Predict the 3D structure of the following.
Amino acid sequence: MKDYKILNPTFGNFVVDHKSMNIPKNNLPRIVVIGGGFAGISLIKKLQKEKVQIVLFDRHNYHTFQPLLYQVSTAGLEPDSIAYPLRKIFRKNKNFYFKLATVERINAEDQKVITNIGELSYDYLVIATGTKTNFFGNSNIETYSMPMKTISQALDIRSLMLQNIEAADRSEDPVTRKACLNFVVAGAGPTGVELAGALAEFRKGILEHDYPSLAEAEMQVHLLEGGDRVLAPMSKTASKNAQKSLEKLGVHVHLNTKVTDYDGMTVSTENEKEFKAMTFIWAAGVTGAPVEGLNMSEVLTRGNRFKVDRYNKIEGLENIYALGDVAFMETEAYPEGHPQVAQPAIQQGKTLGDNFKRMFRNKTLKKFKYFDKGTMATIGRNKAVVDVKKLSFGGAIAWFMWMFVHLWYLVGFRNRVVTFFNWTYNYINYDRAARLIIRPFKKPN
C-alpha cells in the first residue's frame, strides 16, 4: 500500500490517512480491538459513550453466536438467525470504525497493527481472537474431518449431512448406505453432546417422512469420547443425566475411545474400534488463536493463550490486552485459567471497559473477578442439564432455562424473534425447516 496522505480536502481537525485505511486521525485515544466475538463486543459496548476512537478488525462483517452453530449445522436454524452485522451493532457511535480485514501481526515496538489491507497505529490494543480447532497435529483428521467453529463450517456440515442422506437414498449397496448414514462425532464436550443429540432428533423427526425408503434404524449417530464420561467440565450428575438422555435418543456413546485417524471413510481409534462413516465431525478440542508478532515464547502459555494479569494486560507488555478464550488468567479459584466459554469473555470485556474509563480519569483499576453463572448443555427436546454452583438438575425445566439464556444473549431483537419462532415451530411439528443444500460440499480427495 502506498505511503501517502491526501492533505486536501480536510475534514474538521483531521486529514484522511490512506495508509491508515481511511480512518481519521484526531485527538482521541485510539483503542484497536481484534475480534468481534463476545469479548470484543462486550468491551466496545462499555466504551460507546466514552471519548475514545474505537477500531474493530474482524475477518467477518458479522458477530456469530457460536453456542447455536450446531443448530445451523443440523438444519434447525438458518445462519442469519445467529449472526448480526458488526457495523449495525455500533452504528450510532460516530467514533467507531469497523474494517473487514485479517490481522497478520503486531508491531509492539511501533504500536502498529499490520493487516492484509494496511497498517494502523494504536494507543491501546485489545486482542480478542478467541480459539481455533485443535487437531493435535493429526494432518489426516485436519484434512478430512468436519470442524465447526464458523458459520461457513456449520453450513458445510449441513450440506454434507444432507448430501450423504441423499446418496444413501439412491444407493442399493448396503455398505455404501451404511457409510452414508453413519454420523460420527468426536468429543463429548457441550458442542459434541449437542451435535449428537440434534442429529438423533433429525433422524427421529425427518428421516421417515422425507425418505420413506430409509429405515430410521439405518441412521446411526456415534459419539466418541477419549475420557471416561461425557460433559467432563460439568458435574458427575449432569454428565450421567446427559448420557442417559443421549442413549434414550439412540445415540451410541463410546467412552475411553480416543480417535487416532480418519482417511475420509474410516474412523480409527486407540482401542482398535473402527467406524465406516462419510460424515465425521471433529469437536474434540480447541486451542487459542493468538496474533503473530509478539515474543510468543514469553507471552504465550498453556493452550496457546496469552498470559494476562488480573487486569487482562498481557504480562511484560504495555498497552496490549487480551480477552476471553485467548487470554490465560491464573487465579486461586482458576489455576488452569477461566473456562473458554461465553461468560468469562463477556465479563472480562465489561471489566476492561470499566478499567479504561477509570484509567482515563486517573482512578484505581479493579481486578477481574469471574462470577460463575453456571454451565448448561442441551441434548434435545425437553432434555438439558444445568449446573448452578452446587446444584445440578435436568429435564424440561433445564431445557427451558437453556432456551431463555440463549435467546437473551443473542444479538438483535430480530434474531431473538426468528430463533424463538423456529424453536416453537420445530417443537410443535418435530420439523427442521432449514434442511436445504444451498451450496453442495465437496470433500477433499
